[in-house]
Design a protein that fits this description.
Belongs to the proline oxidase family. This protein has 464 residues and is of the alpha/beta class. The protein has 21 helices and eight strands. Helices cover 55% and strands 10% of the residues. The chain starts with a helix and ends in a 7-residue tail after the last helix. 41% of the residues are buried.
Length: 464
């Protein structure tokens, strides 16, 4: 019945009357953690408690350096692997990643691989193009690894991976492009169509607002992005581009729009390139609606990852420093309302446009997940259709497992790589997601309940 409804235009009242009457909201309490080993649960409880301690998050990099000096690299590394690294990272080798993904698939979860590489704004300038070219090779390997996971058992019909634009193009260039894009009547020389044509043809692109060195870097960055998208399309892997700071996002969205112009045609089976929208920004709902309609008018498929946002503290600090308006919502409740409005907008887009519109509900919030599943049922969107869910590896497993067991498509964001590569990345993510980490009390309570049940009641986990 879901598939029949989804492929027809049905008035809302008629649709609700035709839907199965036995839909029930997800229950995140009953036995989600019974599927996991006692060692996994113990580590998760300890690590989440540590990560909810503000001094550890604030001084994480300094504490890591101190630990290496005091204990030595080998012991310090072993402690990290047994704790934070083991909780949030799949591993370093392709085989370790594959084992992690196979474990997730037995629980009904899917992989969303992430290369832990990015360039922080105002960081030291990279020398030449070598650093970005090295990142390009890492991204291409990530595409191949994502594709290889299709051969492992379990659901992998829609393979996805994350893409950090600032691993392939400099933040300085993005800031220059952003300042130009924001000007009234910005020149058409920076249109997505012109950038897409330069990507496809490989011909040099000269933009008047950039100097010779910047134009050269833009051309190299366009080439790198095109190569990743081309390879991902060939390997049937969809690219979810991460949003970053507001000083960079207009440029990043311009580059995504250029990639979408080339790769998101429904004839290509698109969308192959998705953009991320941050609900904590004041203009997100309007921009999301505008972009969705623009894609529809252009005959393009449209892919969205919807998040609350992770750069709140830095965004507000920059606004105060520059004397500009704070771009973020005033509080968490306002962000929740914005997320719900954006979610409603996108679910209606999916309902109207079907498989040419895809959405990832990337949220650790139980109420947002419940709302999404309820509205999907009311709109006739199948659980395993163009709408999927996403959470971080090692966090919010009670929500992920409940979704997976109910038949929804749910992905875990999976960073992988060496300790030296991943630990600084994890610490930055922890600093950006303080509110999420400090709000995991409920997950800690569920972990504690399950561990107490096993230790006192002799319970065992369910075998698969």
């Amino acid at each position: 019945i879901f598939s029949n409804l989804f492929n027809k235009t049905t008035p809302q009242a008629q649709l609700v009357n035709l839907l199965p009457p036995n839909w029930q909201p997800l229950n995140f309490d009953e036995g989600a953690f019974r599927l996991k080993g006692t060692g996994e649960l113990t580590r998760a409880l300890l690590v989440l408690r540590l990560c909810a301690w503000p001094p550890l998050v604030t001084h994480g990099l300094a504490l890591q350096a101190w630990s290496q000096r005091l204990l030595g690299s080998r012991i310090s590394g072993a402690l990290l692997r047994a704790s934070i690294y083991g909780q949030f990272v799949a591993g370093e080798t392709a085989e370790e990643v594959r084992r992690c993904v196979q474990q997730l698939q037995t629980l009904g979860l899917r992989p969303l691989l992430a290369v832990p590489t990015e360039e922080e704004p105002d960081s030291a300038a990279k020398t030449g193009e070598a650093w970005y070219e090295g990142n390009l090779r890492a991204m291409l390997r990530c595409v191949d690894l994502s594709r290889d996971l299709l051969e492992t058992p379990g659901p992998a019909r829609n393979n996805l991976m994350q893409l950090k634009m600032t691993a392939l193009t400099s933040t300085r260039l993005c800031k220059e492009l952003t300042s130009w894009v924001r000007r009234p009547g910005a020149s058409l020389e920076l249109s997505p169509e012109r950038l897409a044509e330069a990507m496809d043809s490989g011909r040099n692109l000269q933009v008047s607002c950039l100097n010779a060195e910047q134009n050269g870097h833009l051309q190299a960055a366009l080439s790198r992005l095109h190569r990743v998208a081309q390879h991902a399309r060939a390997q049937h892997v969809r690219l979810l581009v991460d949003a970053e700071y507001t000083s960079l996002n207009p440029a990043l969205s311009l580059l995504v729009a250029a990639l979408a112009t080339r790769w998101n045609s429904p004839r290509e089976g698109g969308p192959w390139v998705w953009n991320t929208y941050q609900a904590y920004l004041k203009d997100t709902h309007e921009r999301l609606g505008r972009d969705a309609e623009a894609a529809h008018r252009a005959g393009l498929a449209f892919g969205v990852k919807l998040v609350r946002g992770a750069y709140l503290v830095k965004e507000r600090a920059v606004a105060r420093l520059q004397g500009t308006e704070d771009p973020t919502r005033p509080d968490y409740e306002a962000t929740n309302r914005s997320y719900s409005r954006c979610l409603e907008l996108m679910l209606n887009q999916v309902s109207r446009h079907g498989p040419t519109c895809h959405l990832m509900v990337a949220s650790h919030n139980e109420e947002s997940v419940r709302l999404a599943t309820k509205r999907m049922w009311e709109l006739g969107i199948p659980p395993d259709g163009p709408v999927c869910f996403g959470q971080l590896l090692g966090m919010c497993d009670h929500v992920s497992l409940a979704l997976g067991q109910a038949g929804y498509a749910v992905y875990k964001s999976i960073p992988y790589g060496s300790l030296e590569e991943v630990i600084p990345y994890l610490i930055r993510r922890a600093q950006e997601n303080r509110s999420v980490l400090q709000g995991v009390r409920r997950e800690q309570e569920l972990l504690t309940q399950e561990l107490r049940r096993r230790l006192l009641g002799g319970g065992r986990r369910v075998r698969h």
